[in-house]
Amino acid sequence: MTSLLSPVQLSPHLFVVYSEYPHRDSGNVYLITGRYPTLVDCGSRRAVPQLIDNLSQLGLRVDDLTQVIATHGDYDHVQGFHDLRLQDPDLCLYLHRSDWPIVQGNDPYQNASYLYTRPFVPFAPDLCLPLEDGTTIDAGDTTLSIHHAPGHTEGSVCLLGTIDDRKVLFAGDAVGGAMRSLTGATMTIWVQAAVTWEQSLQRLAELEFDWVLNGHEPAQTLPLSRARFDRGVRSFGRMLSPWFSLEEEETPSLDVSTPA
After folding, report:
1. How far is residue 66's CA from residue 147's CA, in Å, rounded to a whole number?
2. What is the residue-level pLDDT of the chain in tens, covering all 260 positions?
3. CB-based contact 27:216 (threshold 8 Å)
4. Which of 57, 79, 129, 152 is within CB 3.0–4.6 Å of 173 for a Cys-Cys bond?
């Protein structure tokens, strides 16, 4: 597995501050700088030390952050918030209400911790602030519009905003994410999730954006283009792959240099 030893700058106010590939137990984490420094997702607890180090390379501490906006409630996207909040007890977590049961409960299937054989530490109700479809939230020096995109989870959202003259869609696992295993779900629920997910993608395809930043992509290949998003939407559901693997052995992290 390779993970970032330094942040990757995508534009003057937009960075990848954590990424690992192949996937072990943490999704990508993005930083928007400006008046309201914001993380989009915050990864797993194991990822937090490297995340904090990458922030420090940009001259930021956890208590400089205004908020974490979660694209959804899965273990690999939010569990690290517990350790970030130890650094800053005032840090806020925004999450769509439909995923509050995921993070406030302890069902390993719902919160996806069954994939990682690590316990999920539930979130106290007062840790979650709501994201509402059709509203906006300040982040960096811009605003992000909230687009509810259920399918991967009931509360999955995508965030759309203009950053450094680029229209950027933070897609979480709505783009490129996986279905849950059939173990733990009825076929009816599983199929309905796929249908709902396709409908969400069709709504997203009506939006205008240039870049896609999703939850699991090597930092070196980001951002994804609009053309790649459109190809993915056209092919969604043609083949639902049963293969999902997690790297079993530790390998040294590689330094991915920040582009000039």
Report:
1. 21
2. 777 899 999 999 999 999 998 889 999 999 999 999 999 999 999 999 999 999 999 999 999 999 999 999 999 999 999 999 999 999 999 999 999 999 999 999 999 999 998 899 999 999 999 999 999 999 999 999 999 999 999 999 999 999 999 999 999 999 999 888 877 777 888 888 999 999 999 999 999 999 999 999 999 999 999 999 999 999 888 767 666 666 555 444 445 444 43
3. yes
4. 152
